Amino acid sequence: MSGKFDVRLQKFMADCGVASRRKCEELIQNGKVRINGHPARLGDKVDPKKDVVTLRGKRLVASGSSGPVYLMLNKPRGYVTTVHDEFGRKTVMDLVADVPARIYPVGRLDRDSEGLLLMTNDGDFANAITHPRHHFAKVYRVTVRQRVSDAVLDQMRGGMELEEYKTQPCSVSVLQSEAQRTVLEFVIYEGKNRQIRRMCEAAGLEVARLKRVSIGSIKLGGLAVGKYRMLSEQEIRRLLLNAQRKAGENA
Q: Do 72 and 218 touch, CB atoms closer than 8 A?
């Protein structure tokens, strides 16, 4: 499994439309992937024309026929952000079924959350958006069923001790405040699973609604719920330039 046509296993999997490279790395580490019948390991390379790569027993074949696709989706609540769901639940793929390319979600947005989700078939693009060192700002509008005190706001802003990790400092501001309802705006740079929900839970807040409204320079705007649109060349270029700049700052 070495030669001039070899590519990293996670890149090959991403090109097949499995998921982002980071998610593919998780699948490899969890023992879901085999190369020519043997368990795959991180760091393995494959020749797409010679090697047989399987995921949960199903062979992967790179599409290769379509060009790169970059789109933004306004994800509704009730949809799982994954390519395949073993429990038969609705996935975001149902909302982009008419896209001919094998695209996949970039990053996470849990089933009960809504808003901006990027999707692509370009593994390099997905990696640029999700890599922690690129520090893309993600903005969320969060409605909770309580009035939020200044002490709680300061607690969330300064970083919170959760079970597995401490969150990085973030921006939290109040957009609306009523007796039994507060609308908050979070600006975070991490991509931890259900991070904002877990922060709110740790602070004693009940989340009624969570909506992502921007990722870096990409804004959800007036895109209708359940609809998608292709990103413009300028939007793609701006995201990638920002990723390169941040990578240089954190090198």
A: yes
Helix and strand element counts for the chain (H, E): 6, 15
Closest CA to 138 of 75, 171, 183, 187: 187
Phi/psi-derived region of residue 226, left when phi > 0, alpha when psi is between -120 and 50, beta in every other case: left
What the chain holds in terms of domains, given with CATH numbers, is 7-59 (3.10.290.10), 70-121+222-249 (3.30.70.580), 137-215 (3.30.70.1560)
Would you say residue 22 has pLDDT above 90?
no
110 is catalytic: yes
The yes-or-no verdict on residue 1 having pLDDT over 50 is no
Catalytic residue among 6, 47, 51, 110: 110
Q: What is the pTM of this model?
A: 0.76
